[in-house]
C-alpha cells in the first residue's frame, strides 16, 4: 500500500506493477506514450439562427450547451457538486489517493472493476476524451472498463492539475458535464429544468443537478421524478454530513418538490422545431456549402452544430407573416394543390420571406419538400414549369435588340409554325412537325408589344421570339438566375420557350423579376447576412453579390411593358393596389398543371404559384384550393390573389415609388427609316424594302385603301414608325375601294395661294414625329 501510494503521489512516475492483468512492461509503455500536457477539447456549443430583427429561428446543436464562467454559477451549486462527487477536491492533487487506492484494491481482489474512485479532475478528463472521440472505436476506447484507460486518465489528470487551477477545472467540468434530457453544461440544465440561470439556482435545485451527473438518464426527473428526488436527497444529506448546509436548510430542501413541471423548458433543437423550418433548412444547406466552415460537408456540418455560431439571416418576420397569412387565407394544408410564394428585395437579393401551404412534417397536410427552392438543395422540390412568365425575358431581348414598344405583329389564333426556323445559340432550329399554337385570351388582331403583354398573346410572342432569336432570351434568363430547377442545367432553347420552359422555383423567378425592378441589377439570392463565432468574432460569409446584367434603359422598357399588364386592360389589372408603380406577369402552363403570378414594385419582388405537386401531375381544374374546387385556373385569378395580398401587406410602411420612365429611344426602338412604298407594285416595293435591309412578306388578300387596286396600301410597321434593321415588314395590297378613280369628280375650286416657303407636297421620307427631322412639314403616312 505504501509503495503504491508513493507511486500515485509521485504522479505515476513508476508503473503499477503486479496489478491483475496488467504487466509492468505494458504500464511503462503506456505512461511513456502519454503526453505531458492535456489538450483541452473545445466545448460543443449550440449555434443560433436569427431573423433579420434578431428574433430566433432555430437552435442548431449536437449538444444543447451555453458555457458560463464559474462566477456565473451559484456558490451552492459548486458546493453540491463537490460534496457528492469529490468532497476532498480542493485538498488533494491530481487524484484522491485514498479513494483511488480503495477502488484499485477492491477491483483487484474481485478481478473486475467494481468501484470508482475518480476525482472531479479525472471525470473532466474522461468526459473530454469522450468528447474528442470521432469514431465508435474511439468512443469505446474512451469509456472502456480497463486499467489501461484508468492509467491514461490518471496521467492526463496530472497534466490537467499542472495546467489549470482548481476553480478553472471545476468551471470546465460544470460546462462539460451531461445533465440529462438533452441539457449539457450547468447553464443549459438550469434553464431546462427550472427556467432560471445557473447563478439563480437554489439548494434543492443544485442538489438535484449535482445528483444527475452520475446517471443522467436514470436520474432524469422528467422520466422518473421519484428516483430523481431520492438521488437529490442523497446529495442534500451528504452536504449536511459535510457541514456544507445546516439542518434547517436540509429539512427545508428535502420537503421541496424535485421539479415544477410547468417550469421545465423544452429543448427544441433543429429546424423542425423552429417557426420557419423550410427557410431554416435552406440556411443550413447554404452554410454546409461554405468552405469557410470546413473542407468537407461532414466537417462543415459538425462545425455548424458545435461552434456556438450566431447566424443572422435575411428573413423579415413582418414580411414573412404577410406571406404566410396570404397563403393561409387562400389555401389549406390539406388541399390537393399546393401554394407557395417567395419575396425578395431588388438591388440586394435579400430573401425576405418564403411561405407555402403545407407545413413541415410527415402527417397529412405536411411535407418535407420546400416548394420555393430548386432541387439543387436537398429539400428543394425543384419548381414547376414557368409558363408565360417567360415572356418578360422575351420582352427584354426584344428591347435589347432595339425593337420598339409599339412594335406590331399580326397575331391570329392559331398560327402555323411547321417548317419555320428559330435561331438558337447552337444554330438554327427548324420545326419539322405540326405546331399550331393558339392564344388563350381575347386579343387585339395586330397588337403592339405592350398590348400583347397585357393580353399575354401567345402568337405574338412566338413571332417576336423568332425575330429576336432564342439565344438572347436564354442568355438574359440565365444571367438573371433562371435555370432548370430540377438539375441546374441551362434552360432549353426550343420554339415554345417564350410560352414557358422547364421548371422554375418561386425563389428563382422572384429574384429574376427583382432585377427588372432594380433597373437591370441582378443580385444572387442573399440569405445569410452575418456569422459570428462563440467569441463574437465575425466569420467571413458572402455578402451582396450584384452585377449589372441589363442596361438600365432596357429594364426601364421591361418595367413599362409589365406595368401595363397591371393596368385596367391587362390580365393583372385586378391585382393592382396602392399608389406605387407595380409591374407583373401571369403564367399558366399546358393543361394548367401550374399557374403563376410574378410581380414587383421597386422595393419588393415576389413570385407566387399554385400547382399540382403530387405525381402523376394533373390539371388544376377541379382540384381543391382553400377547400373548394378550382374553376378556370389562371395566373391572375388563382395565383394572383396570393401575390396581391402578400405584397400589399409586405409593402405597408414603404414609401410610394415610381419606375423610371423608358427613354424615347427605348420606346421607339433602334429603328431605321422605312422607304415609302405606298402605291407601288408589291413586288417592286418588296425589292425596295429588301435593299433597305428588311425582311419582307406580302399578306394574302387585299385591304380597303385609297391606293389603286393591286398596289401597296400600307406596310406593317407603318412607314411613319420605321422598323429595326433586319426586321420583318409586311406589305398589304389595296383593293382600291377608297381610290379616287372610283369616286365621282369633285367640282373645280379656286386654289388658295400659300405663303412663300410653304411645302406644296408632302415628303414621305420626312416623318414629323422623328426628332431627326424637326423642320418637316405636313403629315407623314
Describe this structure in words.
- With 781 residues, this protein is an alpha+beta fold.
- Among the domains are: 384-650, Beta-lactamase (3-Layer(aba) Sandwich); 670-743 and 753-781, Trypsin Inhibitor V, Chain A.
- Helices cover 34% and strands 14% of the residues.
- It has 24 helices and 27 strands.
- The strands form ten sheets. The protein has a five-stranded mixed beta sheet.
- A hairpin with a 5-residue loop joins strand 18 and strand 19 (594-600).
- Helix 5 packs antiparallel against helix 6 and helix 17 packs across helix 21.
- It is elongated.
- The termini are far apart.
- Residues 1-25, 112-116 and 745-781 have low confidence and may be disordered.
Pick out the low-confidence regions: 1-25, 112-116, 745-781
Query: How can the largest sheet be summarized?
Result: 5 strands, mixed
CATH architecture tag of the domain at 384-650: 3-Layer(aba) Sandwich
CATH C-level name of the domain at 384-650:
Alpha Beta
CATH topology of the domain at 384-650: Beta-lactamase
Which structural class do the helices and strands define?
alpha+beta
Q: Helical segment tally?
A: 24
Arithmetic mean of pLDDT: 88
The fraction of residues in strands falls at: 5-15%
The CATH superfamily of the domain at 384-650 appears as DD-peptidase/beta-lactamase superfamily
> How many runs of DSSP E, i.e. beta strands?
27
Binned, the helix content reads 25-40%
Shape: elongated
Give me the Rg, rounded. Answer: 39 Å
Distance between the termini: 120 Å
> Can you list the strand order of the major beta sheet?
2-1-5-15-16
